[in-house]
Structures are given as structure tokens and as C-alpha cells.
Amino acid sequence: MSWWDLGEGRGYRNGLPMHQIACAFCGVADNFEKVQHNERKKPGDDHKKLNYDTLKCGQCGNLMFVLWSTGRSGLTDYQMLPWHRSTKRHPEHWPPDIGRYWVEAKRSIEAENWTAAALMARSAVQLVLRANGAKGSNLKQEIDDLAEKGLIIPMIKDWAHEVRELGNEGTHPQPGTTGTDQRDARDVVEFLSFLMQVIYDLPHSIAQFRARKG
Ligand SMILES: [Zn+2]
């Protein structure tokens, strides 16, 4: 993996997603002046370049650096320094109810509330399954049902069951429980983010791709 791979295979459509780039200091999004722009072509490849932008926040005046590139598929990805230190929003194309759970799960990780993070993420996973028509009287059956419907591949189904067991302790605590372990909590939230990519980001990307081709 090299920085030249930025934007290759994953990223955002229609260029740099300024509407979701928020100031790392005051949190205000999409209010920047570009005070410097540099770019460099990849040696031996006329189609690939890296862009180096310095942005100044119109609200608080602080500076941020954005490294970005558009890949062959037309997707644009970026890295920012510094970044906002708390999660405030979810991608716009996600259902708002599930998005709110994801934001709370992420924020619980950021606040090091591991049990709360795992609980929120586990509930969000269940919400994703139900929103996609999964049937069953518990999370285990719902995971199996969605796999049977072909919406998740066997590998994700197996991972879903592992994550379900990690989140179980927080959901059904016994006296004396020490709560969810930090690494387990991170794994559950990671799985949720991955599931969101598969169920919502991927179809969204395909729809955008078709619209562009259409
Ligand atoms: Zn600002």
C-alpha cells in the first residue's frame, strides 16, 4: 500500500466531499478557504496525481492539511491532519436511525466506554438486519436468515456470529461482570462499520457507478 493508492478502489464520488469535511478545531463543515494547493504527478503515470491542499477554516481561522487523490474509478479519497477528534456524523446515504446508533457506538469508543460501545454496535447490527427484512426471534436467527437470503456472504455471517458472542456479555450481564473488554468493543464496532460498507456503501457506490454510465 502506497500513498499513490489513495482513491484507488475506495473513496467518494464527485471529488473531495467538502460537505463532510469538518474543521478539526471548531467542527464547522464546508467552510474553508484554500490557502495553498500543490500537486504532483506519479512518475511514469499521467493519470495519477496527489493533491496537497492547505485549508483555512472560515469560522475559527485554524489551518488543516488535506492530502487527496482521485482514482481510476473516479472515486476520490483523502486524509486530513489534524482530524476532528470525535465522530459527529454518519454518511448521508445511511438510514438515519442506524446512522445514529453507529455515531453513538463510535463516540462511546472515543470516550473509552467499552461496554456501551459494544451494546450500541450490537443493537445497530440488529437494526441493520431487521431493516433488511431478517426474520428470527433473536440475533443469531436473524444473522442466519439474512445469510440465507443471500444478503451477506458466509464469511461475513461467521464473523457476525463471533461478534454477536462478544457483545453478548454486555447485553445479558451476570452479577460481577467486568463489562466488555476494550479489544472486543473495538471489534464489534469495526464489524458494524464493515457491515455498513457492505449493506449501504457498496450498493450506493454501484448505483452511482450506474448513474454515471447511464
Ligand atoms: Zn474551525
Description:
- A 4-stranded antiparallel sheet has the order 1-2-3-4, with no helix packed on it.
- It is α+β, with helices and mostly antiparallel strands and 214 residues long.
- It is built from 5 helices and 4 strands.
- Strand 1 (32-42) and strand 2 form a beta hairpin.
- The protein has helices spanning 96-110, 114-131, 139-148, 154-171, 182-213; strands at residues 32-42, 45-57, 63-70, 76-81.
- 27% of the residues are buried.
- It folds into 2 domains: 3-81; 96-213, Up-down Bundle (Four Helix Bundle (Hemerythrin (Met), subunit A)).
- The structure holds zinc ion.
- Zinc ion (ZN) binds next to loops.
- The site of zinc ion has 8 residues, from loops.
Mean pLDDT: 90
Whole-Å distance between the termini?
32 Å
Structural class call reads alpha+beta
* Secondary-structure element order, N to C: EEEEHHHHH
Strand coverage percent: 15-25%
Poorly predicted tracts of residues: none
Q: So how many helices?
A: 5
Our Rg estimate from Cα atoms comes to 20 Å
CATH architecture annotation of the largest domain:
Up-down Bundle
The CATH class name of the largest domain reads Mainly Alpha
- Largest sheet properties: 4 strands, antiparallel
How many domains?
A: 2
Outline type? globular
Major sheet: order of its strands? 1-2-3-4
Distinct small-molecule ligands in the complex: zinc ion
CATH T-level topology of the largest domain: Four Helix Bundle (Hemerythrin (Met), subunit A)
Q: How many β-strand stretches?
A: 4
Helical proportion, percent range? 40-55%
